Amino acid sequence: xxxxxxxxxxxxxxxxxxxxxxxxxxxxxxxxxxxxxxxxxxxxxxxxxxxxxxxxxxxxxxxxxxxxxxxxxxxxxxxxxxxxxxxxxxxxxxxxxxxxxxxxxxxxxxxxxxxxxxxxxxxxxxxxxxxxxxxxxxxxxxxxxxxxxxxxxxxxxxxxx
Length: 161
Hints:
Elements: H1 15-22, H2 33-43, H3 48-55, H4 59-87, E1 90-94, H5 103-114, H6 122-133, E2 137-138, E3 141-142, E4 146-150, E5 156-159
Antiparallel strand pairs: 1-4, 2-3, 4-5
Helix pairs in contact: 1-2, 2-4, 3-4
């Protein structure tokens, strides 16, 4: 049953079963069990105050646990991206101040040299770089140094150092 505000009734959400279905293993995860529990409940639409009541703690503590969990998830993503960049056959540095229109040629040239095929047109590649760079790209200007890597299968990653 849903609460009056459209959120699920906190009593109807079972964090243990959510974690089990998702295959959560605290020994293998960068998240603590509590962090995973809080994230799973938040992703199901529960408010921090509902979670605090359920866990017998304060809303401020739930907020802190959630913030730490989200930070850990972001760090894990960055670690994976870094590890993939190390093994990628194509690595292109795009310096701050570069015109985004110049980036595809640099990526294509590096891919040609490495024998890697990119399955994106130049406009698609510019959009991919711009979208994945976040606020490091504004308009056509690359505002912060970026690394574009291309895996052997053509998968493109964009990282900010």
